Amino acid sequence: MESPHASLFIKFKTPIFFCFFLSTLSVSASSKSTHLFPKEALPNKYGYLPISTTSTSSIFYAFYEAQNSTLPLLQTPLLIWLQGGPGCSSMLGNLYELGPWRVTKSLTLQSNPGAWNRIFGLLFLDNPIGTGFSVASTPEEIPKDQNTVAKHLFAAITRFVQLDPVFKHRPIYITGESYAGKYVPAIGYYILKKNAQLEVSERVNLAGVAIGDGLTDPETQVVSHALNAYYVGLINQRQKNGLEKAQLEAVRLAQMGNWSKATGARNKVLNMLQNMTGLASLYDYTRKAPYEDDLVDNS
């Protein structure tokens, strides 16, 4: 789930909070001072993963080991989380969605009962380079296509599993939401293609991929909203006709390559759908109240 203002949250709030995390690790390593944050909220590993041997560009990562896995550690899956955007830091997912602790409205932390690292190792990557804490040595190195995104991610994942022998043979699942609906298939396909060229000992142990509310094929997906809403009884025929007209306009603009106006037209479709249905959230039509996203919208 990503707000249209999510980048503001990333720019101002999330890096500040995560910088506190990193400084806390340094303080705790050099003294017996009381933790500024709960120990469980701090990553087990964090740092930078270079995208190549010839560049200083690097992908920032934060890793949280599984807390209560039902499997031996060597068999416990590693889940990689990629945020969407494009250009949203995965620290949004960490501190707001699926990490072990969440940032509250009062800018404190509270334990997340749905944290994914309860039973899985959880690796957040700020992707692509230039996003969040990740570093692009030059603007020209920032990816402009999914193949380059995948190439950089493959380098980062390969280097991560080399950090600790315990990572080498654990199954890896690549997950993400929203615009990561493009990243996840891209890196999944790249790994399969690359693995076929590598010795068994050098392959990435990809076990699967998972995408939530992914924007994988916008032209196909945007024309599905009216039909879906109509056939589950959320809108009537007149509303369906109006929504379909707006959908076709968004597709027309996308096919023209007018990306800015196409984005605006797609947002108009979603706003129309929200107003027509009166739903608390388009992400889950069974919800009775909106998601609490004040930190995102007000930042």
UniProtKB/TrEMBL annotation:
Coiled-coil ranges from the UniProt annotation: none
Enzyme Commission code: 3.4.16.-
GO molecular function list: serine-type carboxypeptidase activity
GO biological process assignments: proteolysis
Source taxon at top rank: Eukaryota
Signal peptide residues on this chain, from the entry's feature table: 1-31
GO cellular component terms, semicolon-separated: extracellular region
Keywords tagged on the record: Carboxypeptidase, Hydrolase, Protease, Secreted, Signal
PANTHER family xrefs: CARBOXYPEPTIDASE, SERINE PROTEASE FAMILY S10 SERINE CARBOXYPEPTIDASE
Protein name: Carboxypeptidase
